[in-house]
């Protein structure tokens, strides 16, 4: 019995070859075959259609390493290929841009919207903002990728609910943008877009198992397991912020109690900062706490360690369940840099059972949430266009 279909194998191999190009730059067919773990015939069968579609181009022949050998021509992404349009949609904030196949961002536009406002007014702001980015494209993009906060049905292209932005709840956003612009549109949960951005362009390169963790006003996460993004039914997997860590804990925005989100987001951090009497508690962030702790602030140091412990609780549960070993921080937690990530890692190690050869690593993505999410949204378009298994 065949457990993996030929089309799935082809998609996986395409993903491996493209990742090898992202990781290594211009690469010959022979080297691609070696790095992707496939044979030369498979490489040719995959890259030739992409050359014909002008996604890839062949460079000048390099001098052969062995006398008499055939000169190798490195392959890489075509700088003149159609670009990818990307949208980052978070409560009250819109970012749109164009992204090249190699991840360069241009035509960045920003806008704000009323989270409790009129749906038609929101749709007008969104389409006008995206139109300003698209106007700067030399040719029609391959498609539009959306990274959105809230609960997302990625199969239907619908934003199911956003507690911090009710105007977005129930919005069939892929139909709205697809009809308006006449382009293919794909959407995924904001943390999964961060994960795709990490995998293609950031600290997740070369990793076969890892998780992206986002903290800010909300908490979210996404998993990359055995070389593929885990999405769950209709994109419902990865609601990490609403895993329960305190049975009798605080009420959450979702209506439940004791969610991880209630102890590992900015709202908790700022409430505690106010209780402890820190100056301007409503402006406290991880970055500020790290700076104050390094300057000798004992209250800041104590609060930072408690915050690190709260973030570590959820990661430890994830580690015990999936043993991913590699975790990338985004959002507010990432602004704490190595000072916060090392504290979180220390707490995670204290929570989990020790196993042979287990090497838990926690890092911050210093590229910035917006750029990583936008690159990830663009990666969704590439994945859809090329039918990749990522």
UniProtKB/TrEMBL annotation:
InterPro entries named in the record: ATPase_NBD, ROK, WH-like_DNA-bd_sf, WH_DNA-bd_sf
SUPFAM superfamilies given in the database record: Actin-like ATPase domain, Winged helix' DNA-binding domain
Highest rank taxon of the organism: Bacteria
Gene3D superfamilies reported in the protein's UniProt record: 3.30.420.40, Winged helix-like DNA-binding domain superfamily/Winged helix DNA-binding domain (1.10.10.10)
Pfam families linked to this entry: HTH_24, ROK
Protein name per Swiss-Prot or TrEMBL: ROK family transcriptional regulator
Species classification: Bacteria, Pseudomonadati, Pseudomonadota, Alphaproteobacteria, Hyphomicrobiales
